[in-house]
Amino acid sequence: MAFSGRYEVESEENYESFMKRMGFPADTIEKGKKFKIVTEVVQNGDEFTWSQIYPSGHSMTNKFVIGKESEMETMGGKKFKTTVKMEGGKVVADFPNYHHTAEIAGGKLVEISTIGDETFKRISKRLV
Fold first, then answer.
1. Region at 124 (left for phi over 0; alpha for psi -120 to 50; beta for the rest)
2. What residues contact residue 56 under an 8 Å CB cut-off, 6+ apart?
3. Which residues have C-beta within 8 Å of that of residue 15, sequence separation ≥ 6?
4. Ranges assigned E (strand) in 17-107
């Protein structure tokens, strides 16, 4: 499947100001800047298991089916319900405070999160 794989953060744009806008404390943001987060995606048709694994061993996993309401978890650990969509090959989800898209472009996982006029972009390379 197009999204299935393990990806490690290669670059980030506008991380610090986006996280400030999200309300994260400065010390958490500072620690996060140094993390090489690994994202693991298992796609089976319209069913996804999307995990982010942090260097500390902590992980966050969201399971969802495209077009069906699913319970998800935010970066801050808050649970909520949303319907994830597929638009033009992109996974699209509205989180409580931000809009998130993910796509595979040039073999890389490209994620874009937007809150108001603030946009955070993360590019992750596929791991073998």
1. beta
2. none
3. 29, 32, 33, 120, 122
4. 38-44, 47-53, 59-65, 69-73, 79-83, 85-87, 90-94, 99-105
27 contacts 33 by C-beta, under 8 angstroms:
no
- The closest of 126, 87, 127 to 109, measured between CA atoms, is 126
Helix (H) or strand (E) holding 19: helix 15-22
Whether the model clears a pTM of 0.90, i.e. scores above it, the answer is yes
Strands 90-94 and 59-65: unpaired
Q: Give the Cα separation of 29 and 57 in Å (integer).
A: 18
Chain segment 19-55, per-residue pLDDT in tens: 999 888 998 888 888 788 999 999 999 999 999 998 8
The dihedral of CA 93, 95, 122, 63: what is its sign? Answer: negative
d(CA 6, CA 123): 13
* Sign of the dihedral defined by the CA atoms of residues 14, 3, 35, 52, in that order: positive
Reduced to 3 states (helix: H, G, I; strand: E, B; else coil), residue 21 is helix
- For the chain, give the percent of residues with pLDDT over 70: 99
